[in-house]
Each structure stands twice: as structure tokens, then as C-alpha cells.
Amino acid sequence: MIGRLNHIAIAVPNLTDAVKTYEQILGAKVMPPEQLPEHGVTVVFIILPNTKIELLEPLGENSPITAFITKNPAGGMHHICYEVEDIEVAITKLQSEGVRILGDGKPKIGAHGKPVIFMHPKDLNGTLIELEQI
Predict the structure, then answer these.
(1) What is the pLDDT of residues 69-125, one digit of tens each?
(2) Among residues 111, 119, 114, 112, which one has the least CA distance to residue 93?
């Protein structure tokens, strides 16, 4: 069901500092920041030859990333995103296997303008996993 690794997301307390690390110290290609109010985050994608890194900074006090940063003040790996061909088929299969879809269980539009879902980490070996329809 899952396809390619789309990105690894890292939550950061300060997006400007994190971008500087990737751009100036590591020499990576960094895309411009994008605010995603419906997800409560500002994101920056780091483009690598084989995948992407997504840097996440909380956007607003109700951001789901705020609690993560509170527990991990320096930031850290937040989730892994895999590609799927049909997100509705994936949801049906996952739910039939007892995997909980976070939120209302319906896809939202993600940073790439494509439908995404997140699955409960307790159902997937302690890892928050995002699926993105390609």
C-alpha cells in the first residue's frame, strides 16, 4: 500500500535558525516558508536528491506542534510521510486493521496541495505516520 518516502518532518522551535542550519551549515536547497493555518504550522521543505525534510514550526497557540516543542524544547523528529496512490482506499484498509486516523478521519489538504492523513502513533510502533496521496 505505501509507496515512496515523501519526507521526514522535524519540529523546530525557531524556523529561521533551523533554515540557517540546513542552508548555511549543511549546504542544502531550502524552499521558502509556507504557512498552513489549517494544520497550525509554518513549514519549510529541504530538497534532497532522494527525499525531502520538512521543518515544522508552531503557528499560533493551538498548534499541534506546540505540545511537541514543550516536551522537546530543542525540537526533534515529528513524523514520517509515505506516498499512497489512493488515500480513500488506504483509509478503508487501515481502519479495517484497527488503525486510528487522527482528527475527524477524513483527509485534509497538505503542504503540497494533496490529500493527507495522520495515523495514531500508538497503532504504528510509536511513530506518527502521515500518508499523502500522489
Answers:
(1) 999 999 999 999 999 999 999 999 999 999 999 999 999 999 889 999 999 999 999
(2) 119
For this structure, is 54 an active site residue? no
C-alpha cell at 16: 529561521
The fold of the 5-133 domain, in CATH, is: 2,3-Dihydroxybiphenyl 1,2-Dioxygenase; domain 1 (3.10.180)
Catalytic position from the list 83, 85, 88, 130: 130
Record the pTM.
0.93
Indicate the domain borders of the chain: 5-133
Structure-block grid coordinates of residue 27: 549546504
